[in-house]
Design a protein that fits this description.
Helix content is 41%, strand content 20%. The protein is an alpha/beta fold. Strands 1-2-4-3-5-6-7-8 form an eight-stranded mixed sheet, with helices on both faces. Strand 5, helix 4 and strand 6 form a beta-alpha-beta unit. Helix 5 packs antiparallel against helix 6.
Length: 275
C-alpha cells in the first residue's frame, strides 16, 4: 500500500492565468528527489517550504494549508532526502547535516534558474525551521526573507527540557509508572544513533543568530516540542535587517495548521515587507 501510494501520487490541477501544478522528480547532487510546485501564476514569487522531521513529509498538508498562498506565490514543497517520495535518494545512515544544506542549496538554485528569480522566499516548520535558518545563513543572497514556525533552536536542550517537564508532570500527578517510562525513553534517546541524534550539537543561538535577511518566527503559545524559552532566547540574540516574533494563542507546535487563516495573513504581511 505504501509503495502504491508513492507510485500513484499526484497533485490536483490549479486554475489561474498561468498555473503550475506538478509533482516532479529532480536531480539534486546526483540523487533523485521530489518537489511539489503549485501556483496560479508562474510569474509570481517562489516560496520554498521545508517540512519537519527529519524525514517528515507534508506534501498533502501543505497543499491544503497553503492553498490560499497559491494566489500570490509558486508554493514549492521539497521532499527532503530520506523522506517519503525522496526516501530512496540516500541511505538514511549516510545522511548528515551537510546533506540537507547542500541539497537545500541545490534545490534553491533549481528554482531560481527555472523561474528566473534572483531570490526566493523561504519558510520552514519544526526541523525545517532550523534547516531554513542555516540555509539562509549560508546563502543570504538567494533568499528574500525567512519564516520559521515551531522554531527549533537547540535540539539537545529541547530534549532535556521536555524530559524534565514530563518527569515533573508525572511526579506531580503521582504517576509512578509514567516516571519509569520517561526514564526509559530518555535512556533510549541518549543511545539513539540516527539522523536526529546527529543534530544534537546544533545550537542556532551560536551558529545562526547573525542573519542578513529578515527573519520572522510564528510560534504556538503552547508549543512544547519547541520550548518558548529557547525561542525567546534565540530571538533576543538574533541580529537581522528586520525580525518579528508572533505568538499564536490557540496553538501548539503547528499554528500553520491549527490557526491557518491567521497564519496565512501573517505570512502575507511579513513577506510583503520584503517584497
Amino acid at each position: 500500500m505504501v509503495a502504491l501510494s508513492q507510485i500513484t501520487a499526484f497533485t490536483p490541477a490549479v486554475e489561474g492565468p498561468d498555473p503550475i501544478s506538478e509533482l516532479r522528480s529532480v536531480t539534486v547532487n546526483g540523487r533523485t528527489e521530489w518537489l511539489s510546485l503549485r501556483g496560479q501564476d508562474r510569474s509570481k514569487p517562489v516560496l520554498l517550504f521545508l517540512s519537519g522531521g527529519p524525514g517528515g513529509s507534508q506534501l498533502v498538508t501543505a497543499r491544503h494549508c497553503f492553498a490560499d498562498l497559491e494566489r500570490d506565490y509558486v508554493v514549492v514543497t521539497w521532499e527532503q532526502p530520506g523522506a517519503a517520495k525522496s526516501y530512496s535518494a540516500i541511505n538514511p545512515a549516510d545522511i548528515t547535516l551537510e546533506t540537507y544544506l547542500s541539497d537545500g542549496a541545490a534545490v534553491t538554485e533549481i528554482l531560481r534558474r527555472e523561474f528566473g528569480q534572483d531570490r526566493i522566499y523561504l519558510m520552514g516548520e519544526s526541523w525545517g525551521s532550523a534547516l531554513g535558518l542555516m540555509m539562509a545563513r549560508e546563502h543570504p543572497e538567494h533568499y528574500r526573507a525567512f519564516i520559521g514556525t515551531g522554531q527549533m533552536v537547540d535540539f539537545l536542550e529541547t530534549e532535556r527540557i521536555d524530559y524534565q517537564m514530563a518527569l515533573e508532570d508525572a511526579r506531580r500527578t503521582g504517576n509512578k509508572k509514567l516516571v519509569d517510562k520517561v526514564a526509559f525513553f530518555w535512556g533510549l534517546y541518549q543511545t539513539f544513533d540516527s539522523v536526529y541524534g546527529r543534530l544534537c550539537p546544533i545550537d542556532l543561538r551560536q551558529s545562526a543568530a547573525e542573519q542578513q535577511i529578515p527573519v520572522h518566527i510564528f510560534h504556538g503559545r503552547y508549543d512544547y516540542n519547541a520550548p518558548t524559552s529557547l525561542v525567546e532566547d534565540y530571538y533576543a540574540r538574533l541580529r537581522a535587517p528586520r525580525k518579528s516574533l508572533v505568538y499564536f494563542e490557540h496553538s501548539g507546535h503547528n499554528p500553520w495548521q491549527t490557526e491557518n487563516e491567521l497564519f496565512i495573513d501573517h505570512v502575507r504581511r511579513a513577506f510583503a515587507e520584503s517584497a
